[in-house]
Amino acid sequence: MAILFRSGPASTARWRAPLTEALPDHEVRFWPETGEPADIDYALVWHPEPGLLASLPSLKLIFSLGAGIDHVLRDPTWPRQVPLVRLVDPYMTEAMSEYIALSVLRLHRQDLDYRAQQLAGVWEERAQKNAAERPVGILGFGALGQVAAQRLRAIGFEVAGWSRSPKQVPDFATYSGKDGLDALLRRSEIVVCLLPLTPQTTGILNAAAFARMPRGAAIVNAGRGGHLVEADLIPALDSGQLAGAVLDVFQEEPLPADHPFWRHSRIVVTPHVAAETHPETAVNIIRDAISCCEAGRTIPNRVDLARGY
Ligand code: NDP
Ligand code: OXD
Fold it and tell me: How many independent structural domains does the chain possess?
């Protein structure tokens, strides 16, 4: 009974000890040392190469080494009959809510302007409102979106969430569907994207969406690079329709050295670190899911392929 771990070298180094310690009854193989493919029951993957999962004939479960699963679904050969499980780890959720709070506060407190003033040696006050006067909208009101919303609300922001299915969440205005998206964009001075990447959400942050937001609004994208139509962002910033953007995810990662986002004064770039997977806590979630699978119990956080996330 073996487990295959497939991620990049830095991630492999971080996972090796926690994973082998948490699962002493399983042989853990670290890609590319796959060994006999038929021995492998469980695969833990981040951006597996197309064909890898299909080459493992005895797979019982596939784990995404993250909350998103788009990196698995992009392989047309992945074995759809094998349950796919994503990571829903409270440690990561906390990390994301910190990132969102920081990003929203940076935009709200005009950090980009003060940074520019500092570099130019300019001592000048800017008009500043309080958080309660700056409505924030979160696209994707799931595991990450709702906790981020609570964190923002504790700071004082009026937060609304947008999801696929209608929801009632105490203390928050909620929207769903196309009309709901329109309403959320029109009310939100800062729009945070925490959606999964699906055909329905691809390109959702585009020129038409920016035009519906109040003039001088801002965006935070910590979902996936595919949510943003990158060519639409700089024109929206340069025209003043948007005042700023904090971006953690990009169409191409690492962000190419000559990409204009690196040097735009109204864009903050972070290297896909909003909520990194945390092996020390994630291994417990993986161990519990394997126990459920082996005992024939319901496996938590199994991806619903009909919804696509
Ligand atoms: P969840 O599945 O818990 O939540 C997803 C939310 O998006 C749900 O509210 C869902 O609606 C909503 N949604 C999905 N499709 C649509 C749609 N077509 N229209 C409107 N709403 C939609 O996911 P998580 O919160 O755990 O994670 C969200 C994403 O965050 C991940 O898929 C990943 O891409 C990204 N992520 C980024 C990280 C980073 O470091 N930058 C780290 C971790 C995750 P409903 O509630 O109705 O199902
Ligand atoms: C994830 C991510 O999906 O890190 O967990 O982006």
Answer: 2
